[in-house]
Known about the structure:
The chain has 213 residues and is mostly helical. The chain has helices at residues 2-13, 19-35, 37-49, 65-81, 87-94, 96-110, 116-144, 151-173, 175-211. Helix 3 runs antiparallel to helix 4 (65-81).
Amino acid sequence: MPGAERDYTALVRMPWIPAEELFALLVAVSFAAGLNVYATVATLGLLAHTHWLALPPSLALLGSWWVIGASVALFAVEFFADKVPAFDLIWNALHTFIRVPVAALLAYQASAGLSPLEQAAAAAVGGAIALAAHGGKTAARVAVTPSPEPLSNAGLSLGEDVLAVGITWLAVRHPYVAGGIALALVLFVALLIRWVWSALKALFRGAERVLAP
């Protein structure tokens, strides 16, 4: 409908959303990007293209079909690569240099209406939250990979995919709820990483005692 198109265009050109709501949305989306950046970008693009989400002009590119198509294709590759035991550790290590920078860039572009200092702060927070999510994902894989059956990796990866898409969708509909969930998960991740690190140190100490003459 022409009227609906005019309403959408007007919404995009208005100041996007209140700063508090923007912060909650960025926290949730950054966490999702730390888990699966391709699924997050594809979800944002599809929501924007179908007019469920009015992106600011600085992120309008996400709604283009070529960005959506590229994100979906890369998500399909990651969907399988991330579920192979041992190889998923290499895959996730390499994606440290993709998920975190992309999350920081999304946060920076989404906050284009703020001051340069606030934009830089948003990018730093987005990158830090994505790093926390990525670190928790990697720590969980380190803990699960030694398992003798491969279904643990596949199940964990599938859960991460669903969480990335779900929390991105929820951030669009209920940003405060999604932001709160993401912050709670960041705290959980911090505890998980601490537990995995303690378990690895105990494992190495046990190996040293066994190998000691």
